[in-house]
Amino acid sequence: MLGLDQIVQNKSLALLFRKFLYERYNNENFSFWLEAENYKHISSDDLRSRRSKEIYEKYFNTESKYELNVDHIQRKDLEGQLGTPTNDLFIPIQLTIRKLMEMDAIPLFVKSESYKKFKENELIEIELSSTERDRSVTICEMEEFLKTHPAITK
């Protein structure tokens, strides 16, 4: 069974998964997962503090268009830790989101025509429109993730 680890280990496959989610207006989970993964590698306290607030506003603010559906307890725990953010701040929610993707989005993706074509060809050029580039999973986040994970292939 295809899992998130296999998806992010291949740039073309990760971009295809991102596009699949985008087309279904459901890419916030993947976006958050990537941003949380990138956040783990921040070494500067100032940058970590700034990024934790940005990620919180983007995915946990009730007025955000990218708000994630997480339980009240996880949200309150996160809010309580924002004052002194550590590199593992988002891990509990990231694990929850990962499970959701592996139980829902990834099985749907595996059944999709785009994934079937990918498996046949193993190399697909992903065309992204400017509006897709601006959506919650930014290409910049994907590229940052790919830089910090050297085992990933293009």
UniProtKB/TrEMBL annotation:
Pfam families: RGS (PF00615). PROSITE patterns: RGS. InterPro entries: RGS (IPR016137), RGS_sf (IPR036305), RGS_subdomain_2 (IPR044926). It comes from the Eukaryota. Residues 3-119 form the RGS domain. SUPFAM superfamilies: Regulator of G-protein signaling, RGS. This is RGS domain-containing protein. It comes from Heterostelium pallidum (strain ATCC 26659 / Pp 5 / PN500) (Cellular slime mold).
